[in-house]
From TrEMBL:
SMART domains to which the protein is assigned, alphabetical: PH
Protein name: PH domain-containing protein
Domain PH: 42-145
The entry's keywords: Coiled coil
Pfam families found in the cross-reference section: PH
Stored InterPro entries: PH-like_dom_sf (IPR011993), PH-like_domain (IPR052212), PH_domain (IPR001849)
Organism: Knipowitschia caucasica
Amino acid sequence: MCVLCVQIPSLPLFLSPHFDLRSHVQSLGHGVSGCIDLRLSSRRCAGFLTKRGGKVKTWKKRWFLFDMDHRRLAYYTDCDERKLKGVIYFQAIEEVYYDHLRTAASSPRPALTFCVKTYDRLFFLVASNPVSMRIWMDVIVTATDEHSRY
């Protein structure tokens, strides 16, 4: 087989240094500039979400940071990003879906609740409004879709 005929596997799209997260989200039809709850750049998405605890099932507001360069979704106590509370690595995320069955019965806003399923835990997250929820879901799905290409 000639050298020109060998296919070289491409990097997942989100690992490419040319991938622009903000442009990608806009291409999905989201009006990003109108969503004041999020800080969305070419490589990061950040904003507050309410998260249900793992052991103690209380709901707490956390600052979430989707970071393509570190390939993780991290959450902090507040937006200064000094006190890291937890990390969800992209390769651990199996799926992201709207909680249409209302499995998080105690959610402060059931209509704005979505789930991030990893291999060892199910995270229940609540956005502040429907636009923010759809953007967060699409942003997180970007990592899971691209990771599954391997």
